[in-house]
Design brief:
heterodimer; A: alpha+beta; four-stranded mixed β-sheet; 16 helices; 16 strands; 41% helix; B: alpha/beta; Rossmann fold; 4 helices
């Protein structure tokens, strides 16, 4: 299943093109292409120079401090890291069976996080491509263009995002560096005013979520065959599901399916993930390539995130989102949907699911309970916490010594899980849209659009729609510059 | 409609407490919160993002606080005007871009806004704040403490006056 474009046979005789986005806090990505003299592409690689000090940063800290400090690994999805670490530490203290209220508070925080993150990505970072087209005027293809052309839509995005942040603040105390999850539970109940305030807005939030699904769905359906084929390829998928096969974001069992929908594994405990997932190192990338052990590195890579979750689950346990899932499945005639641009559609179905579940949880009497903590006994030296983060399955694995200090940590973040898939998507784009062409800004944007569909955590760079400084150079094997194009941060070209 | 507030100033401080001098914003936010003054609304976050337009209150001065590698002095107060810069479509907006999004989204002029730059130099994950930035934080805090010790009606004019002074001499 791995594309032939990963490594060219005659690398030394090809011209090298480097697409290098601006380095940002959370990561730095670049794309390299090797082309022959006719600009036929022979090799495409996405390099993510991810900051790899995470594990070392955590080592030596007391285990109970971990759920708080891991929020500082990433400014984009701190709540996902907080909850994954919290679940891992619950295992270490033997307190993974939370009280109903504590579990529901964590779920509520998680739905709030996913809702706000999906809203930001769709309304402000991807919608310019979808509303105006990949090849529209770059000056217009940004959030200000959306505000000018669709002011209500832009404001809805802001307010959806704000609402998710308010949920996080209500549960964790602060929007960042909160201390909601502690070993064995939660550290504060939900106040009556907070609940009423959140409930007063949820119907409007749900209406906007319904409209967002319509927008994503209509875009996908009305832009075929492009939306079916752009950066797309059949893959395996992995996600958590509930025991009954329902979509699950906070706590479930691992399920992986093949491209034809056949099950690779199902109902696998997250505590033995390492028996089913391995990571391969390749000499050209700083980032590992995970694969499903049963299939091996060549055929075992997979996709995670909204597309994987909606593809993998048997149903969604909220009525409006389930209705939309059925439309989503019907569009691919019940088979697995492999279109990369379908990530946007699946993402909005999840947004709607989050809104529905938030309302359900806020109306649940147990959400206001005060029984927040279970006491366990330190029983394990190892703790594993797995969660469906915004961008996909997130693994936190800690080893703790007799002095209660973390001696080893292993994190597989969502973007790492999608590493091979993102590479394959841009290879498809290169083959379909770049090969044999002169490099132009719209072609560059095609690469960005394919990467952006995954909402990777190098998103600080890849999200800079139309404003990402990019330089592309085509050189021959002697290093002579044959052609270059530079896009400045103000959107102008040289 | 733009949000309103009973506060006399909105403070936005951002950064990561575990990335060396990136903690500057969080440290100063913590000290301001410690004043327990209901006339100050403090918003703290990892990064400035789009939803922060809903934290900017109509006709209430906004004071942004962040670490800066661009200044030679311990701190610098700069008066801001909305600008559409290249951070506009990212996960981390600049204060001037946030003000621009505010005006575009809510359709009205942004309130007076200022950026307190505090000198930082090292931003590695797992580092503590550097000694030099720690001193810069103390000096910046002296400025803020003096500011907030006065009547809240004076904060806006005082920020305006200080921004013109500090931009030339600090």
């Amino acid at each position: 299943m791995t594309s032939r474009l990963e490594t060219a046979e005659n690398r030394g005789q090809l011209n090298r093109i480097v697409v290098e986005p601006l380095s940002r806090v959370e990561g730095h990505g670049k794309v390299t292409l090797l082309a022959d003299d006719d600009n036929i592409i022979h090799e495409v690689r996405l390099h993510i120079v991810e900051f790899r000090g995470f594990e070392r940063f955590i080592q030596g800290r007391p285990y109970w401090d971990v759920p708080v400090v891991v929020q500082r690994l990433c400014g984009i999805c701190p709540v996902s890291h907080h909850l994954a670490a919290g679940k891992a530490i619950d295992r270490i203290v033997g307190a993974e069976r939370l009280t109903p209220t504590a579990k529901k508070l964590r779920e509520l925080a998680h739905f709030g996080q996913i809702l706000q993150s999906h809203a930001l990505h769709f309304f402000h970072l991807s919608s310019p491509d979808l509303l105006f087209g990949f090849q529209s005027d770059v000056e217009h293809r940004n959030i200000i263009g959306v505000i000018e052309a669709h002011p209500e839509l832009a404001l809805q995005g802001v307010k959806l995002r704000k609402y998710g942040q308010e949920i996080i603040r209500a549960i964790c105390g602060k929007r960042i560096h909160g201390t909601g999850a502690i070993p064995g539970g939660m550290n504060k109940p939900l106040g009556p005013n907070e609940k009423l305030h959140l409930l007063s807005e949820i119907d409007q939030i749900t209406e906007w979520a319904i409209a967002a699904v319509e927008l994503a769905k209509n875009y996908f359906i009305s832009n075929q065959p492009l939306s079916d084929t752009f950066g797309s390829m059949p893959t395996n998928y992995m996600s958590l599901v509930r025991p009954d096969g329902a979509l699950e974001l906070y706590d479930g069992k691992l399920r992986a399916k093949k491209q034809n929908g056949d099950v690779i594994f199902d109902q696998v405990s997250d505590q033995v993930y390492h028996e089913h997932i391995r990571e391969e190192v390749r000499n050209w990338s700083y980032m590992k390539f995970p694969y499903i052990t049963e299939l091996g590195p060549e055929k075992g890579w997979y996709r995670v995130g909204p597309l994987a979750r909606v593809n993998n689950c048997d149903y969604i346990d909220s009525p409006l989102a389930e209705e939309e899932r059925q439309i989503f499945k019907a569009h691919s005639e019940g088979t697995m949907q492999h279109a990369s641009l379908a990530y946007h559609w699946a993402r909005m179905i999840e947004l709607l699911h989050c809104a529905e579940k938030i309302k359900e949880l806020l109306n649940d009497p147990e959400i206001r309970g005060t029984d927040l903590l279970v006491r366990g006994e330190r029983r394990n030296s190892s703790g594993i916490g797995v969660i469906e983060a915004t961008r996909g399955t997130l693994f936190h694995h800690y080893e703790v010594d007799d002095n209660d200090l973390v001696k080893k940590a292993n994190l597989i973040v969502s973007t790492t899980n999608n590493n091979q898939a993102m590479n394959e998507s841009i290879r498809k784009v290169a083959t379909d849209h770049l090969s044999g062409q002169e490099i132009t800004e719209p072609l560059l944007n095609n690469i960005e659009v394919a990467i952006r569909a995954y909402d990777p955590c190098l998103s600080c760079a890849t999200h800079a729609v139309g404003k990402m400084p990019l330089s592309v150079e085509l050189r021959n094997t002697r290093g002579d510059l044959l052609h270059s194009l530079r896009k400045n941060s103000n959107g102008t070209y040289e | 409609m733009a949000p309103t507030s009973d506060a006399a100033v909105s403070v936005f401080a951002w950064g990561n407490e575990s990335r060396g001098d990136d903690a500057i914003g969080a440290i100063l936010a913590s000290r301001i919160i410690g004043l327990d003054n209901p006339s100050i609304n403090v918003v703290e976050d990892h990064q400035l993002q789009l939803e922060h337009v809903m934290d900017i209150a109509e006709n209430v001065p906004a004071l942004f606080i962040d670490a800066s590698v661009a200044i030679q002095t311990d701190f610098l107060l700069e008066r801001l005007t909305p600008i559409r810069d290249d951070s506009i479509s990212t996960h981390a907006l600049s204060p001037v871009a946030l003000l621009d999004v505010y005006e575009q989204t809510l359709g009205q002029p942004a309130p007076d806004a200022y950026l307190l730059h505090v000198r930082g130099s090292s931003f590695e994950l797992g580092e503590d704040i550097s000694a030099s930035s720690s001193e810069a934080v103390d000096n910046a805090w002296q400025f803020l403490d003096n500011l907030f010790a006065g009547p809240c009606e004076d904060w806006g004019p005082a920020l305006r006056a200080a921004s013109s002074e500090t931009s030339t001499q600090v």
